[in-house]
Amino acid sequence: MKYKALVIDVDGTITHIDRKLSLAAAAKLRSLDIPVVIATGNVLCYAKAVAKLVGVCCNIIAENGGVIIDGFDNEPIVSDVIHECEDAYEFLSSEFEMEKLDSGYRKTEIVLRNNFDIEKAREVLGTRFPNVEIIDTHFAIHIKSKKINKGTGLLKMAELMGLETTDFVAIGDSVNDLEMLQEAGFAVAVGNADDFLKDIADYVSKASYGNGTVEAIDYLQSSSLI
């Protein structure tokens, strides 16, 4: 089977450990003859810049599935879930010192610097906000709705592109990529990925970060999967 599109995470997947863009990964993605979707926990403006600079513009899943756009100048589809995240943040901030990141740009989730005890915060949150979860992507802490993730984002993006989610190869490295890899037809975990992501992947690269993405795409091409 040949897959018709590729969806890929950014930080830790097409970057080096210091978050600098891997030029080799960018060149490899740019060379593909199939559409490439950028899927990130970061904000839309950041994701647009990544897509433009990599040269794969512009199908984007941003804010972990909360914001979706299928053209650089199109209106984004924004999930209406921010209020419950804000309520959870207000509740938690009475117990913990928290520092918001990108708060002026976030539309669907609250993102915090990783400088507090996330496990204790989960305990404090308990069942008070059943539709909200706290995840650690290794780059930041996200207070997000359980209703949306990169998997639901991929479902919507596939619909916009006239494809099925099983037409996609998905590449990622962290907890917020889990549903996306589960939803895709073929799942790739780069070498630095969390173990539970490697457990569900169809292919795990030996190399890490951007070099892992280059290795994975070489495998996909040599196996006539894309």
TrEMBL record:
Binding site for substrate: 150
Substrates-to-products reaction catalysed: 2-phosphoglycolate + H2O = glycolate + phosphate
EC number(s) reported in the record: 3.1.3.18
SUPFAM superfamilies xrefs: HAD-like
Keyword Hydrolase in record: yes
Keyword field contains Repeat: no
A Pfam match: Hydrolase_3
GO cellular component terms, semicolon-separated: cytosol
Keywords, in A-Z order: Carbohydrate metabolism, Hydrolase, Magnesium, Metal-binding
Coiled-coil intervals, chain numbering: none
NCBIfam families assigned to the protein according to its UniProt record, in alphabetical order: Pglycolate_arch, PRK01158.1, SPP-subfamily
Purpose of the protein: Catalyzes the dephosphorylation of 2-phosphoglycolate.
Stated family: Belongs to the archaeal SPP-like hydrolase family.
Name of the protein in question: Phosphoglycolate phosphatase
Organism: Methanolobus vulcani
